[in-house]
């Protein structure tokens, strides 16, 4: 399949008029969604979320993020069985998400190795965090619900998804149309004063 980002983008703009959604609305409205209705999520919406990632910044512009979209119900069930069992069974809610996204990082990139060796900074993890949040905010602007998932069996999921050695599986993201009751009020956030200092610690 040839994926032409600008074609996907312009089709979406025509269909959804998404250019009228200011980003702050998505930031304010977003919640982690763990209950979804059964509607499947069209692939062009998922691709537009990945297009939002494609535009994200990354250290040295190495763009290490890679995505596996699991939207086949049988594959999702099999992955869920493997990844959300035993001590990870708390995450079984995600087995009902219409789509699971595996966010991975390309490790075999010089900037990754230099950052880690010289500055003790695994830049690819920062890049992946930015990438995932671009994905999540674009999904929100399209009316989709998402939840980051870190609590799952990485080893089993990696094997199941046939991820090669030089690719690191970093997180999953559940995606779907929110179940009507799942929009909650914002979980408590720290006060601004606790987060910020000016000019020195
Ligand atoms: C890196 C990361 C990993 C997360 N892992 C999980 C998880 O495994 N299970 C889960 O239910 N929520 C997970 N979450 C969602 C957080 O619990 C949620 O973002 C936080 O409680 C704030 O709630 P909100 O997203 O609704 O504002 C994760 C979030 C992030 C950013």
How does this structure look, described?
This protein has 201 residues and is an alpha+beta fold. The chain has one domain: NADH Oxidase (3-Layer(aba) Sandwich), CATH 3.40.109.10. Helix content is 41%, strand content 14%. The protein is built from 8 helices and 4 strands. The chain has helices at 5-16, 23-29, 43-54, 73-83, 110-119, 123-141, 154-160, 192-195, and strands at residues 65-70, 99-106, 145-149, 167-176. The chain has a 4-stranded antiparallel sheet with strand order 1-2-4-3, with helices on both faces. Helix 3 (43-54) crosses helix 6 (123-141) and helix 4 (73-83) runs antiparallel to helix 7 (154-160). It is globular and about 50 Å long. The model has no long low-confidence stretch (mean pLDDT 91). Flavin mononucleotide (FMN) binds at residues 31-32, 34, 91, 147-151, 171, 187.
Topology:
Layout: H1 5-16, H2 23-29, H3 43-54, E1 65-70, H4 73-83, E2 99-106, H5 110-119, H6 123-141, E3 145-149, H7 154-160, E4 167-176, H8 192-195
Antiparallel strand pairs: 1-2, 2-4, 3-4
